[in-house]
């Protein structure tokens, strides 16, 4: 490997002389000589082509999304991603970019974020979208914090039972110690309407997910009306693919809308990095968490993109900032922008149709199996619940899933989006 290292013997001797030693070993004199360079039982070195074959053989033992169907769902889906997404994502200008604090040298990054924000607003029909959050769970927690800030003296957030339990756990983690009270109706048969009935004069927000954790679709409009009648905000958590077919948060009257954006051009990636989508009505823009990119003109009337409303951010407000979202999410937002641009309105509708019809086909086929019952929770998208004839015995189920289920025999949550759409 020495021909890859641009240091000659003369260079090395000059560096040693500069620091006043003769041999490299002297740098490690504090380490006992007996353990300084132990003999390691390693196989012989491989050439590059041999190493690649060895690693490919090892990787071939893995079960992965390309070789197996995945039925986990819950916000992570194996959708087809056009090759152009990764091609643009991996350009050095984007892949290694830092926070665009200096607009004069960051116009490309800023424009990409602005395009992402514009596309999300078009998709959701909301007024404002920020530059993204870490994932759907953190976006939803930030929505609760923002709702409390926007409604002043209200400290309670009512969360519908169908909201993803992983997102609820993130909310508990981020809100603990803040004085915000999370109220969740945990009854097995609880509906979003039951959650709306819990909204009172002390409630800052009502949070409803549609499609929910079990894939059930809900009509947001009457729920938003109920929240507004009590003086609370309405937070809609959505699936961005579902908006190709169904009601948008903006049309339903949502004040804040959040989503897990992994399905918009990001891979499964062992759980991350993912994309937290966050948007709101114009009147709450000064309370919004995360960065905002705006468009302006300079003194020579040239179009330019800048970080706007900066006084909300951590580099200026420190501990009083509205959030601490950092650089890393810009790449996932770029992936979503490229994906949405490639798919267009018709493409998004087609992907949503595929997910809808495949899930309903699977439900019909599973219902034919002896002992299996597809639970009727109304219209559904991507996922649905199945009552199995006996509990699933895997330890992983009992360790990770069982605590989140109100009925232990509801162990099947099936996603047909696992066949890439």
Structural commentary:
The protein has 421 residues and is an alpha/beta fold. It has three domains: 2-59, no CATH class; 83-339, Type I PLP-dependent aspartate aminotransferase-like (Major domain) (Aspartate Aminotransferase, domain 2), CATH 3.40.640.10; 346-418, Aspartate Aminotransferase, domain 1 (Alpha-Beta Complex), CATH 3.90.1150. The protein is built from 14 helices and twelve strands. Helix 4 (83-89) packs antiparallel against helix 13 (330-367), helix 6 packs parallel to helix 13 (330-367) and helix 7 (136-150) crosses helix 8. The longest helix is centred in the last third of the chain and has 38 residues, at 330-367. The radius of gyration is 26 Å and the shape is globular.
Shape: globular
- Based on the structure given, which CATH architecture of the largest domain is correct? 3-Layer(aba) Sandwich
Strand order of the largest sheet: 1-7-6-5-4-2-3
- CATH fold-type name of the largest domain: Aspartate Aminotransferase, domain 2
Helix content: 25-40%
Q: How many strands, which pairing sense, and closed or not: the largest β-sheet? A: 7 strands, mixed
Under the CATH scheme, which class of the largest domain? Alpha Beta
Count of distinct strands: 12
Unreliable spans: 405-420
Individual helix count: 14
Amino- and carboxy-terminal Cα gap: 44 Å
Q: Kindly state the mean pLDDT as a whole number?
A: 88
Element order: H for helix, E for strand: HHHHHHEHEHEHEHEHEEEEHHEEHE
- Strand content is 5-15%
Count of separate structural domains? 3
Radius of gyration: 26 Å
């Amino acid at each position: 490997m020495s021909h890859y290292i641009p240091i000659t013997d003369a260079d090395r001797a000059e560096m040693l002389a500069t620091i006043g030693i003769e041999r490299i070993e002297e740098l490690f004199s504090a380490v006992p000589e007996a353990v300084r360079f132990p003999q390691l039982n390693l196989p012989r070195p491989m050439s590059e082509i041999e190493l690649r074959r060895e690693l490919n053989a090892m990787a071939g033992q893995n079960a992965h999304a390309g070789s197996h169907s995945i039925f986990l769902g819950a916000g992570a889906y194996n959708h087809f991603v056009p090759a152009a997404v990764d091609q643009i994502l991996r350009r050095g200008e984007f892949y290694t970019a830092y926070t665009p604090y200096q607009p004069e040298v960051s116009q490309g990054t800023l424009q990409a974020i602005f395009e992402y924000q514009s596309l999300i607003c078009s998709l959701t029909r909301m007024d404002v979208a920020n530059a993204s959050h870490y994932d759907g769970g953190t976006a939803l927690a930030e929505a609760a914090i923002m709702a409390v800030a926007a409604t002043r003296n209200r400290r309670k957030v009512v969360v519908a039972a169908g909201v993803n339990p992983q997102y609820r756990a993130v909310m508990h983690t981020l809100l603990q110690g803040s004085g915000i009270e999370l109220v969740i109706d945990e009854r097995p048969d609880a509906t979003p309407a039951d959650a709306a009935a819990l909204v009172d004069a002390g409630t800052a927000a009502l949070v409803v997910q549609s499609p929910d954790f079990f894939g059930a679709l809900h009509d947001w409009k009457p729920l938003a009306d109920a929240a507004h009648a009590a003086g609370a905000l309405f937070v809609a958590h959505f699936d961005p693919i579902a908006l190709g077919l169904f009601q948008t948060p903006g049309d339903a009257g949502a004040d804040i809308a959040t989503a897990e954006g992994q399905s918009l051009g990001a891979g499964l990636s062992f759980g991350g990095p993912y994309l937290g989508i966050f948007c709101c009505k114009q009147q709450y823009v000064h309370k919004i968490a995360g960065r905002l990119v705006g468009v302006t003109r300079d003194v020579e009337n040239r179009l330019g993109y800048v970080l706007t409303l900066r006084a909300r951010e951590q580099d200026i407000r420190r501990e009083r900032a509205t959030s601490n979202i950092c650089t890393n999410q810009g790449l996932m937002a770029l992936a979503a922008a490229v994906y949405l641009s490639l798919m267009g309105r018709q493409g998004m509708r087609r992907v949503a149709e595929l997910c809808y019809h495949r899930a309903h086909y699977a439900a019909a086929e599973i219902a034919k199996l002896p002992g299996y019952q597809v639970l009727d929770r109304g219209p559904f998208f991507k996922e649905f619940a199945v009552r199995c004839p006996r509990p699933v015995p895997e330890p992983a189920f009992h360790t990770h899933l069982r605590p989140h289920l109100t009925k232990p025999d509801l162990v099947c949550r099936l996603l047909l989006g696992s066949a890439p759409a």
